[in-house]
């Protein structure tokens, strides 16, 4: 007797999202959130301009992540970079490296080197515009 497995129908829509994940980036999560809040919901091209002009040191690793996510979108899914929008950007705390700095009279102060995990998700909005035009 044959076993018949019911498989779910594949979604007919193509993939519309691409993401990049930065692990253990040497930056405080609060400082990264200050930058991420400025770019969430903006287009890819506008985001690159904002990140280049912001005066913070943490902009460069985030710039690299956004650029990497766009490269993933164009190479893996064949999406156009001009249609991409940052739909999700989150920052989570990661491991903390702890060191001790020697001070006067045999005391020591702890130094915490914080790191964070950053996730950037880009979505192609041109497909959603086509669906809205059909309705």
Automatic annotation (TrEMBL):
Compartment(s): Plastid, Chloroplast
Under PROSITE patterns, the record lists: RIBOSOMAL_L22
One cellular component term (GO) for this entry is: chloroplast
* Chief site of localization: plastid
What keywords are assigned to this protein?
Chloroplast, Plastid, Ribonucleoprotein, Ribosomal protein, RNA-binding, rRNA-binding
Give one GO molecular function term: rRNA binding
Pfam families (UniProt xref): Ribosomal_L22
Annotated GO biological process: translation
Summarize the subunit comment: Part of the 50S ribosomal subunit.
Physiological role: This protein binds specifically to 23S rRNA. The globular domain of the protein is located near the polypeptide exit tunnel on the outside of the subunit, while an extended beta-hairpin is found that lines the wall of the exit tunnel in the center of the 70S ribosome.
Family designation: Belongs to the universal ribosomal protein uL22 family.
The protein here is known as Large ribosomal subunit protein uL22c
Organism, scientific name: Gonopterodendron arboreum
What lineage, starting at the top, does this entry show? Eukaryota, Viridiplantae, Streptophyta, Embryophyta, Tracheophyta
